[in-house]
Design goal:
Largest interface: A-B, 44 and 44 residues
Helix content of chain A: 55-70%
Radius of gyration of chain A: 18 Å
Number of strands of chain A: 0
Distance between the termini of chain A: 64 Å
Strand content of chain A: under 5%
Oligomer: homodimer
Shape of chain A: globular
Largest sheet of chain A: none
Structural class of chain A: mainly alpha
Order of helices and strands of chain A: HHHHHHHHHH
Number of helices of chain A: 10
């Protein structure tokens, strides 16, 4: 039986799935940077042009593999603009805005999956480093050799916030007003990004 | 076939398992505080004295249900003693000492399970609040109405550290020297415990 197809995205669903499966494997095994559209197309047995046709850029394909409907490249500029010493607060506010919204369900699902599946954990790691942290740190005046530590410290606080608010649901963090959390966590993220780490 | 039993703990393994199952259900459904040894014994169909005989105190039984071989009551005094403005650093150092040790595997397993199972999440929440945070905060000069927020903020940073170091394994946090993390995270935990939260 051929399923009836609706919606705006044309093409063969089997081909789309084959490309997504090849992309997941390649991104998890090689990492985002070392993976090319060409490599994914070869693994899926299709022409690279078809990958671009279905998914757009490598960034867009990567977000499709981790099933996150948020584009950090579109959201982060507003965070990175403005006074540099409030970037921590703005980052926490953006994070809560996304995770508190209906979109957040996909992020929570990814987080759950990443804790129980090494491949999803690798994809999440690649997502954090290449799609989020690299973009934030590119815009701050930080020594390049400090970027990885600062970035992973920020990630530790943000993922811990997500765990407590959406997964473990520890009160009062679970139902706190977003601005309470922005005030509490903003200075932490700010220090991890630009402050003295001892 | 009756399995051959070894080791030092006497008694019927079925009875032990029945008590543990009843305890897990009661702790998850009612919470730690509202659960008594008597309630658990009734649910398991045994005498309360047998529960004490097998597991000792309610604290010890609770730790057995979450399968954590660490007793916060035994470890925390060393953290809480000494200069109050370095309690954050000492707490991070203790946390890393436990999770970096062979014992940490049980904690990582609990963390994985809690992200995918609502009941384990409830048990983890109860463990954090009643076994860890309440003990820390009892010894610090903090307004009682601020305790829950401060405690859950500390938990957010600690669980986030565990996620990044042991589960997602984001570098350099995953393999950083413990003292690097103590220096980086200690001031965060200190501020959450005793500082200005905005």
């Amino acid at each position: 039986m051929t399923p009836r197809r609706t919606g705006r995205r044309p093409g063969n669903p089997d081909t789309r799935e084959a490309i997504l499966a090849a992309a997941r494997t390649a991104f998890a095994e090689r990492g985002f940077d070392a993976t090319s559209i060409r490599v994914i197309a070869t693994a899926a047995g299709v022409d690279p042009a078809l990958v671009h046709h279905y998914f757009g850029s490598k960034d867009q394909l990567f977000r499709a593999t981790v099933d996150i409907p948020v584009d950090p490249a579109a959201l982060l500029p507003a965070v990175l603009a403005g006074t540099p010493d409030e970037v921590g607060e703005r980052l926490v506010r953006l994070f809560l805005g996304v995770w508190d919204s209906p979109t957040g369900a996909a992020a929570v699902a990814l987080l759950r999956s990443a804790t129980n599946n090494e491949w999803t954990a690798r994809l999440m790691r690649e997502f954090l480093v290449t799609q989020v942290l690299r973009r934030v740190l590119d815009h701050l005046d930080v020594a390049p050799d400090e970027l990885p530590l600062r970035g992973s410290l920020v990630a530790s606080q943000m993922i811990g916030l997500a765990m407590m608010r959406y997964v473990i649901r520890l009160e009062p963090v679970a139902s706190a007003d977003p601005e309470t959390l922005v005030a509490a966590l903003g200075p932490t993220v700010q220090r991890y990004l630009t402050g003295d780490l001892g």
